[in-house]
Amino acid sequence: MSNKEVKAALKSARDAIRNKEYKEALKHCKAVLKQEKNNYNAWVFIGLSAAELEQPDQAKGAYKKAIELEPNQLLAWQGLANLYEKSNQTDVKGDLEDVYQKLLELYESGDKQKWYDVCNKLVDLYRQENKYFEVAETWQKLIQMKQTEGAEKSELHQLWKKMIQLLKGSTENKENKTEQSLLAAFEHALNSADAVPGDDHQNLYKDFIQCLSKFPHETARLEKACNDMMALYPAACYPLEVLCLHFIQSGTLSEEALHCFSKLLEMDASSGPAIIGLGIKYLQEKKYKEAVKSLTEGLQKTSQCPAAWHHLADAQMKTHKHRDVVLSCNQALEALGTPEGPSLRWKNLILQLKAEALIKIADADAAEEAIKALEQIVDASTNPMVLAVRGQAYLIKGSVDQASEISQELLQSHPDLAESHALEGFIHYSQKNYEQAERSFLNALERKDEAAEYHQYLGLTYWFMGDETRKDKGKALTQFLKAAKLDSNLGIVFRYLGNYYREVAGDKSRARGCYKKAFELDRSDEESGAAAVDLSEELGDMDAALSILNEVTEKAITGTAKWAWLHRGLYYLRTDQPTKAVADLQAALRADPKDANCWESLGEAYLSRGSYSTALKSFRRANELNPELMYSIYKAGEVEQILGKYSNAIATYQQILEKTEDYVPALKGLGECYLMLAKSALENYF
To answer: How many helices (H) and strands (E) does the chain have?
Structure first.
């Protein structure tokens, strides 16, 4: 076949393809290849025809042969691109990427529109594969090409915005180069916007700041972006809210941070971050109740802020609301998710605080939960503070040997740490080794004199050591006063101060004040509440006693606050208000149905009210629960006598006299009953 015939055969092949006669085209191409096996066009036509005849492998082979012959010719590359684009096979995407890259190279110096088309296709392909770095790199080339051609500012602005959309999913990948490309795209888009200030520009700024807030290492850039946006849009709260959250999460409370909190609060008094910031300020100023109130309110509006939950837990710890601390720490951990980098520090702080609160709850289950929390802390086995907390948890759980082992280890490795000596003190105190406990707590206080808890335990040690140290003003009293001065929210200290003033100093008025303070700090401290009521009664201040009792009973749920119901019920009984007494004593019995004395008092209330049958049942119930209660047996006999059941009453009185021959009220009642029976017999002519 001559050169002329080869050209004619190729023309025939081209015509056949144009007419969609692909088999015919293949025949012409094969004829050409017999003569010229390296004919580029023939291989390209074979590739095209085979592709149309749904013979992808043959088409691919033909195109690749053509490329091998002429690697810088467009036709084969274009054909291969078309073949891969139509393929349903996922494994060709990598090959297609290579083809597009080659086409970009070939179009770069020629057809710019086709270069842009292929560039868009390649970017879409990378995007499907989540290859964000390649997306960024390729799109930047496109923008550079447009800039070289002198594209309008508005067109470039749209291209930068498109790049932002393309890279939005990349924030999960943590690739620094891609992150930088995304942030650069935002900055270029902001700088190339026409309408400044304007709604689109403002929304773009919000997206930029939101994006920056996802990158912990971009704090300087975040602060700058927030400040720049505030300068452009002074009425917008968003940048200020983000800045406030940034300061909260960073854990630093600078003058700038406090200024931001104050400014945001002025702009929007209901803003979550602003209210949280105010709460943190209160916490810093040691206004713990106000801190709890503000942080709780702020977190209702902005709940996904682990640092704020930690600050709330810290404030609750300062007011000794230990169960609330545990709940806040759990919320903080939930908001934290799977932490890494700076967030890991927050996780460790939260877990340690949770464990410390669980220890204060002081039961075995809480101690076990504390140990589990501590196990999740990074480097827990080498952190002496964490080890000290762990030792306390073992002690409360009852594992004294493990607690002692940790104590000895800490004393050897960290003898200058107050917590090392305090743990030793707690162990001695729990075993009533008060002299050793005293030595340990004094050692702890030498190293940390501002620790209220150590003064508290040293005071308790002196209190239980013996009468001498209990009465010595320089021992127990001094330590309790120091603890109260250092921590005015420590309820137990005020309770023991009350004990001191009542039992040792004999100062009922001061004792009552201390008990009242202890009860105000801890509403579950029934001992202090009851003591405050008793002393108020002794001092003749019944109004103060009733004020405490009314407050407790109003808030009490069914089956709780027995002591308050009982105290008030007895008061009503003494002041001849039997109906009120019955109601309160019934409420007390719901809390403790097996209290024989309470049943006896209820019987008295029914008797005063004239409800004799129910009074009799109450006295009988008291006797069932405690057969030694002679008074209940006597009152049952008295009620039977009132009801005219003289024979029953005689049997009841005799039951008493069998045990106590000289029980005068029973003898009197027995005589009266015999007399009434005799009188009845006379009236009936017996």
So the answer is: 38, 0
**What amino acid occupies position 294?**
S
Q: Give the per-residue pLDDT at 174.
A: 65
The neighbour count for residue 654, using CB atoms within 10 Å, is 12
Q: pTM for the whole thing?
A: 0.78
Here the tokens at position 451 are: 């620790």
Return the pLDDT at 472: 93
> Rounded to whole angstroms, how far apart are CA atoms 204 and 193?
10
Joined together, the tokens standing for residue 384 give 């002496």
Q: What's the full length of the chain, in residues?
A: 686
Question: Can you state the angle between helices 176-191 and 153-167, rounded to 10 degrees?
Answer: 150
Residue 378 pLDDT class (50, 70, 90 cuts)? confident
d(CA 392, CA 214): 38
Instruction: For residue 197, say if its preceding peptide bond is cis, omega within 30 degrees of 0.
Output: yes
Burial of 62 (0-12, 13-18, 19+ CB in 10 A): buried
Residue type at position 177: K
CA distance 113 to 428: 85
Token pair of 295, please? 């942080």
- Spell out the alpha helix ranges (H) of 108-152: 112-128, 132-148
Higher pLDDT, 197 or 75: 75
Which amino acid is it at 624? Answer: E
Give me the phi and psi of 233, to 5 degrees please. Answer: -125, 75
Q: Please choose, from the candidates 108, 68, 63, the residue with its C-alpha nearest in 3D space to the C-alpha of residue 82.
A: 63
